[in-house]
User: Fold this.
Amino acid sequence: MRLGKTAAPTMDDIAIEAGVSQMTVSRVMRGAGKTSREVRERVEQAARRLGYVQNRLASALREEMTPLVAVVLPTLGNRVFSEVLTGLNETLTGKMIQPVFGVSEYSLEREEEIVRELLAWRPRGIVLPGLEHTDATRAAIRASGVRVAEVMDIDGVPMSGAFGISQAEAGRATARYMLERGYRRFGYIGSQGGRDLRAAKRYSGFWEVIREAGAQMALHQVSDAPSSMVEGRKMTADVLDRSDAPEALYYSNDDLAAGGIMHCLSNGIDIPGSLALAGFNGLAFLEALPIRLTTIETPRLDMGRRAALYVTNSRNSQDGWADTDVVDLGFRLVHGDSC
Amino acid sequence: MRLGKTAAPTMDDIAIEAGVSQMTVSRVMRGAGKTSREVRERVEQAARRLGYVQNRLASALREEMTPLVAVVLPTLGNRVFSEVLTGLNETLTGKMIQPVFGVSEYSLEREEEIVRELLAWRPRGIVLPGLEHTDATRAAIRASGVRVAEVMDIDGVPMSGAFGISQAEAGRATARYMLERGYRRFGYIGSQGGRDLRAAKRYSGFWEVIREAGAQMALHQVSDAPSSMVEGRKMTADVLDRSDAPEALYYSNDDLAAGGIMHCLSNGIDIPGSLALAGFNGLAFLEALPIRLTTIETPRLDMGRRAALYVTNSRNSQDGWADTDVVDLGFRLVHGDSC
DNA sequence: CTGTTAGCGCCTTCAT
DNA sequence: ATGAAGGCGCTAACAG
Assistant:
């Protein structure tokens, strides 16, 4: 027996207590190999009596495969990523795998640091937001040999597996829809100071279609703040104050757009008569609003689930990285009352 | 050199490459002990050349203190807990400590399992939501000797450190305020099927004051669904359909209450003339709504930060557990237009 | 300033 | 069905 009072009991302690070898304890605890019923019970009792808890640092160090998956998130302040994380956590938990995460705050440099730190835990896989990363990030991941999944976006070249939607196409679809409804004079409202690369792609797609239709992009306003309803309301108010205010606003996401709706409700501005709005994400709370926002619904839980399965499958991909899978999870344009 | 192509390089590999002992590599990598400038550079170059990444499983196993803190969250679907997690992550990241989390779905039994799994990682501390846990959960934590912090609530007996607010008092404060405004016929709307123990405490406090004032608690409706604006809107609609509809509704949180506001806005129900509402949390998005909800603002980021500092401080608490700290982080009643 | 020795707790491999 | 030996990669504690 050890001396330190708080030192957790080890398999050796149990072995002595149960009068068997440490190896037998290991076998019993994992349910591996053959063990006699009688020995098993003795060991289990001893373990319970001593309050034994496996040390996963030790087992993970010894085994080939670590029961860890690393996850990088741009922020925790946006439901979208909580939902991706929920999907990931759900399916990892089912496989007895622990997620470890880091928050990049939409910075690729920060992401690089985080990736390095997370790789030190020898995860079996890593999940990244988007397809854009620094060369060093890619190099570190390649060198480590862990499986990678990139979520949210499929417009670009993935390192290995990508599970998301075409952000540019989402922007195009929104533009086409708004053009069909007869709007000609558009504005764009975004946030995160352009650091949200997926939002930028949506805007590109949107603008491309608007331009080709010969319609007008009157305004492109991107604040530096994180996206939120409050920010969206404020920005909408500013934009509508201008003499050249557009007749339709495309927002980089639902939170901003919902803020816009709130501004209109508060100020008696007719939607979509005086102002048409469109968002992105298809967050659940939109259904509670007095005016339904036209938006694009994305499968966020699925992105998490698919990514978790992908990095977790033992399907060999060590050599060659030939198995590049791009999975378009698709989106759905939700036709609301806002345009 | 090793053979496996994907096997990550170890300190031994670098040692050979740099022509020094493995111990020297260890010293250089940690910046510990004395190393000559020249050797340091050789080692650092070799490390960079081979793409060395420290193996934290190994270092954590060897050292006394693990750079991990375990966190249990009731759900990721509620901003409140994302914010607590943000506060935690923020301050842990600064100390090079990695959070590992599990989601309990508001179940104490699930929490017990999660705690057991998380303790296997030998974290230096664990953060739990609320003060209610199974005996087994408490026993496992005590036996492990890790530091514990309980967040959100301070109404009860904490295991060691508690960082939160008095939930009952929050309920009382809301009741007092509504009584002052002249309301006499109340209703309560909650969710999570009563599994949210903090919400239950708020309701108790609320009801206590209402009863003592001789006012009426006409209705107590708790749905089984997770809390959301949509659910709040639906429940509010149901409640107002009844012949005995109350004049004022206390919601278990802002999401539900905001749903109530949306119902009223959509149906031309005067707030607070025909219906008064109060929520809880003080979420930022409330400021964007056309009608300001009266609510209680809570310091969620701080709860996370304080908890992180607490479980992370090396201040000895191994023996005796005498250092029970209860920190009331306080709340603020936000006087809106909804009552 | 650098190297050697030992061992963290567990699991793989090979005996028996 | 069980045990003994060895080592995963790293760092503490001593040499030198």
